[in-house]
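[job 4471] stage=fold_predict status=RUNNING
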Amino acid sequence: MIAKIAHMGTKGCGRFVETQKKLKNRGLVLGITTIAANLYIFVRFKEGGSQDV
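[job 4471] inference complete, writing structure tokens
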């Protein structure tokens, strides 16, 4: 599950770069949201499990 989320996050970053070239403002917001969500999940998992996820 976590590995799948991490893999999706990696794909999301690649898409974010492409999206940012096409739609700068929209791509930026989407990318920041995606990265923030991935960081949150990673930190929660690191701190002691996926209780909230």
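[job 4471] summary: The two ends are 10 Å apart (CA to CA).
[job 4471] exit 0
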